[in-house]
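Justification of computing resources. Each target in the renewal requires a structure prediction run like the one illustrated here; the chain below, 326 residues long, is used simply to show the kind of job we budget for.
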Amino acid sequence: MQALVLVGGRGTRLRPLTYGTPKPAVTLVDRPFLNYMTEWLGSHGVDEVILACGFLPDELKAVLGDGEPGGPKLKYLVEEETLGTAGAIRFALDHLDETFFALNGDVLADLDLTSLWNQHAETGARATLGLYEVSDSSSYGLVDIDEEGQVLQFSEKDPNRTGAGLINAGTYVLQRDAVAEIPAGREVSIETEFYPSITGKGLYARPLDGYWMDFGTPERYFEATWDIIEGRIHTQVRTNSDGVHVSPEAEIDPSATIGPRAVVGPGVTVGAGAKVNGSVLLEGSEVGKGAEVEASIIGPGVKVAAGDTVGDEVLGKNQNGEVVNA
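Resulting structure tokens:
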């Protein structure tokens, strides 16, 4: 079983963590973000994942390699120009199976993909969208379906709309012959161009149970971190009772205070008397003696000087190696 994952974006909403690191390779708790997706896909029978790349493909491959042992094998396709969500899928046409999953690369989820695949087969659909119910639908476009799951229409996001609704979860099952109809060689949106063009012509959808998040801002990064640590998404992460995850490769002075809620990555050093609370210290960062870090993300290789206080900040390095705030 095959999945195509769209990872061509620059991850600008997650800067400064993504200046020199593609978003799928950014560490989330204890592994690159995309490894959560491949773990999820593998649990539903996927054994090959094609990554449709654009931004920093070499760096992405250096981090992710051929995939995790026992998980789906990774294959890389590099777009030379921006083709949009549907255009990127069309670009991969020669590498696709007759039926395959397609997913946006910024989804953190454990939704029931098997039920989506099964409905797609049972209805003979050309495309089937995974839907997710949100309590506040004002920031999303909605998808209306009938009792059989056929898509009736798409509604644009409306800040004046209140209440729950079903949204496109960026998770699809597609037929290769439907993808072949997407215009080649130009930017095409799957949401605003392709799906409306096949509404009423074999386009179905299914509401899915489980966890779902559009991962991509510092606020969502924090939310995803604590959801993983506190068990709201199905995955395997070791923490203690205070919601703290510490890499065995970190060096923490015995007099430092870590948590409640904290992630301390590999190669991190925390000095004597330092305090880290509600924060993420990414690989190779340093918190000096007596420093305090609260509700912040300290990016790879960033140093917090002895005695400094950092609160509600996201610190990382830009293209010139300078430490900058979000």
